[in-house]
């Protein structure tokens, strides 16, 4: 399908035509006909619109994209931030380098940097080197995850929060509390906002309740009918909405794989219901210690 840019925007030849092809029924489109190294205001607006609609966009053939261009692209969508601990590209601290031979295999479902008070709104990943086979990445649509829960279960989740923790002993510790169901600030839609890699517990529940609810939400939100799976070619760029998706890099290869990522700074996730600010768990139901993710030490 070839779609023109936003109605009334620049004529063909100036802003050009975008060729858009769905990757799955749940989310994700491949977009061709644009050079991300230098985009116009109209193209930036159209990309944002497409991201809000499809949640993850793939741009193959971006061989020209330099680290400088990558940062400039991200700045079209907001401020960019330096990752708290991942390796950085020399002279471009905003560009995180993810290399398989240095442990850069994000092979558990996660939302980027959800342990921060203001997790990124969007992430932009540039695949530099791909293994000959394998190394795909999957995304899951968290609007669908929320909308397919039963109404009583959704009601139970409203107003609850979850704690997201990063704990690397002797390196860094960060944590943040966010709504379990967040309201997207641009679309107004609700999505599930818990993730296996970072979410430790729901502080308003007992340990057993929290473990059981989170286990169910992890399994529910990771199910294949909410996914797209992308087979990378070198110099494909992905842009995703980090507020309504989670993702996982499949660890099924031995060879070298490298990618570079820039994230766009976010706002504080919000919900449209009270967050039980006065709630105090009784001492004997206080959450401690947790079994889900116990291997991480939280
Ligand atoms: O390497 C990938 O495909 C995904 C990397 C990732 O999980 C991330 O950038 O957060």
UniProtKB/TrEMBL annotation:
GO cellular component: cytoplasm
GO molecular function terms noted in the UniProt entry: 2-oxoglutarate-dependent dioxygenase activity; metal ion binding
UniProt keyword annotation of Transit peptide present: no
Pfam families, sorted: TauD (PF02668)
Keyword Aminoacyl-tRNA synthetase: no
Database matches in InterPro entries: AtsK-like (IPR051323), TauD-like_sf (IPR042098), TauD/TfdA-like (IPR003819)
Keyword tags: Dioxygenase, Iron, Metal-binding, Oxidoreductase
Gene3D superfamilies in UniProt: Clavaminate synthase-like (3.60.130.10)
Ranges where the TauD/TfdA-like domain occurs: 22-255
PANTHER family: ALPHA-KETOGLUTARATE-DEPENDENT SULFONATE DIOXYGENASE (PTHR30468)
Record family assignment: Belongs to the TfdA dioxygenase family.
Protein name: Taurine dioxygenase
Native species: Saccharopolyspora flava
Source lineage: Bacteria, Bacillati, Actinomycetota, Actinomycetes, Pseudonocardiales
